[in-house]
Hints:
single chain, 403 residues, alpha+beta, six-stranded antiparallel β-sheet, four-stranded antiparallel β-sheet
Amino acid sequence: MTYEAPAGRAPGTRVVEAGRHACLATLVLVCAGCLPRSEPEANPGIFYFPGYGSNWGWLSPKEAGFDETRLQAAIDFAFERESSFGPDLESHMTAQLTTDPYGEIIGPVQSRGGPTGVIVRHGYRVAEWGSPNRVDMSFSITRSVLSTLVGLAWDRGMIEDLQDPVAKVLPEDFPEFRSDRNSQVTWEMLLEQRSEWEGLIWGKPDVADRLPRDRELGEPGSYWEFSEVRANVLAHALLHLWRFPLPDVLDQLVMEPIGATPLWEWHGYRNSGVAVAGQRTYSVAGGGRWGGGLWISARDLARLGYLFLRGGKWREEDLLSVDWIRLATSPSEIRTDHGYLWWLNTDRQMFASASEDAFFAIGAAGNVLWVEPQHDLVVVTRWMEATAVHEFMTLVLTALEEE
Length: 403
């Protein structure tokens, strides 16, 4: 059955089972009042929020406080410094098999578009280039979206304490958290990428991400490591916590309310099929290293960034609590430039030109969602050479007139 879009929205293309979607709607209504973490601000101010899809207002560079010539120079730079990842991403990713015994692609892959981006200030579009409505792979940007699914559960009291072991709310025989080691892993450890979880999921062992690979594991919580395997473990745990496919949860609670198009997709792997609540579904990938992950347009990424810029509020609705936004973008003790699967600019460690309170979702091949609260700015850039991202940011901020 095709999902029926709300009045005023174009019909969606996402196909869901009617019964499951109805149950999810019931869950949302029941949980909407569960354990709110903070009261809405008494004076939230008046902000502009875009309508659905391309119904998104514009400000000229001058109206938005930019020098138009300098801003154009930043956009020209984005075109000039295209990613060295070739358009045929599958060929590029398959090449790793020659050096990586764990490099087999097990999820879908699609060819990429050209350099693309969106700049948003005060909620309005100021500049777009390339194909901003093209749906592309986003690689590790997926992790920041995965983190948001934890926030949605925490806001509703489905996770009482992020310091609790993940195993506490999962079936006793849940395979990923049965061992003495893994039973100690908490939600926060997975979010901060310091879990030291050990095992195999979807045919990929934790050693695939270890650097160096002969490194001995420490105690859970003791060591930071960028791990696709452990992101997949978090996604699988969340699937069983929500009891609904994660794309459906994200669609209902975030993407539809912020007016995103129905074109985005979130893929798992060919071997990640599982049964949940009597239904066959797929556990989604936490990134795109082995294929799959979140496929989304630059515009829809910009909407997600704007939701975070506004503290989880969209118009009069609190989609995420401000408490969650603060937690997700606060530095961990082990890695101060990393929060809950978001990159941070603590002490300007990541990008010297960006503000210290800026935060980022970053994927391979120069895919970046940059949220800059100090300047009320959201920027998405795609398919830029990773080494050029800092210079691009410098050019964008240099284009801002003094305020």
